[in-house]
Prior knowledge:
Blueprint: H1 15-21, H2 24-27, H3 31-47, H4 53-71, H5 84-96, H6 109-144, E1 150-155, E2 158-164, H7 165-190, E3 192-193, H8 209-216, E4 220-221, H9 225-230, H10 233-259, E5 267-268, H11 287-311, H12 324-348, E6 350-351, H13 353-361, H14 367-376, H15 381-398, H16 407-411, H17 421-424, H18 427-432, H19 442-452
Parallel strand pairs: 3-4
Antiparallel strand pairs: 1-2, 5-6
Helix pairs in contact: 3-4, 3-6, 3-8, 4-5, 6-7, 6-12, 7-10, 7-19, 10-11, 10-12, 11-12, 14-15
Amino acid sequence: MSKLWGGRFQKKTSAMVDDFHSSISFDCRLYRYDIEGSMAHAEMLGKTGIITPGEAGTIVDGLKEVLSDIENGLVEFSVSAEDIHMNIEQILTDRIGAVAKKLHTARSRNDQVALDIRMYLRDEIDNTVKLLDHLRETLAEMARGHLDTVMPGYTHLQRAQPITLAHHLMAYVQMFGRDRQRLLDCRRRVNVLPLGAGALAGTTFPLDPEFVAGKLGFDGVAQNSLDAVSDRDFAVEFTACASIIMVHLSRFCEEIILWSSAEFSFIELDDEYSTGSSMMPQKKNPDVAELIRGKSGRVFGDLTALLTMLKGIPLAYNKDMQEDKEALFDALDTVKKCLAVIRPMLATLRVRKENMLEAARGGFTNATDLADYLVRKGVPFREAHEIVGRAVFYCVQAGKSLDQLTLEEYSAFSPLVEEDVYTFIAISRCVEARKVLAGPSPDSVRRAIEKSGVN
């Protein structure tokens, strides 16, 4: 097959170079966007008189047939045609003849590929947002069912204060909500039409990029031809957003892994989302959560690859930029798979409420409430903090909890402690009393669920 750019060359490209140079093995997924972009470009060429309306119609009809055949598995792409753009143009030329050669008028592969990636990424952002929405809905539904499920909250992985499982789950609803906002904000910068920039300096033909933008659903048109073809900051930005999503998924999965261990025994994962050991028959492993945690590094690597690819190339296009696709595609595929699989894993797990409550009762999680009790009696907080610290030390030595101390024992630390202290430091009261905005009380969490906008 002769190269569509081969007029300058007297020798065939080495087969090794063809293989090394080719991107069809991975950019073939852009076929629909390449064809839709080409149809809009052809219509614009016909509208502006650069080619005749009849020629534009023939090209568009031919492209529609190519699209249909690709989707029906009737097209085999060629490595020698390098990429999806040249493959489709070659197939179109074979089918409709010389008129197909007019399609590339006033267009370069540089602005063509930038167009395809933006269209593809725009749709994939929408798909990722939907997955985030579904995950947030699952978490909110779980939270509604666990408004009264008390568990310990942690700092430094040490028991700190009692909260509810609902409060903990809603923390991730907030995180994934911000992830959603970041993606939608990124989408605004993705949704800019680069077509018309040509190779780097536009064209002398009287193009109508606003027409193409309208046909393809773009919000605006690139304002600098060099920038339009030479930057992939929008791909970097998406991959950064994906990396933050993976951070949040990984942190959550780390907790799932801990909670499902015998040492915590807070939850049990469903058999469908667990695996066993080939040697140890008793094992039930949280492999799904572990894989998600591990795949976070993969997406971070994709982000590093994109940043490194871009950092040293001068304007405008350089072949290095072909490396944008595999990293972007991998980040997209990975984050979408992780979002899809974590949702049913969470929805089917079993919560061991009694174990969570028992853990909340240990570790002196009501110590801050005891300090607050003394503050309400008129003790400055720093003094109250010291008094409670001494009381906790005493309990550690005596093998008691704060609610097991007698009033006589309390009197050794402060004469202000009275019978009502036991009600004040009860674990359930410690949670229910925290009715402040964003607090863990059932009422506060219920309001947070409503305010989150999640169904």
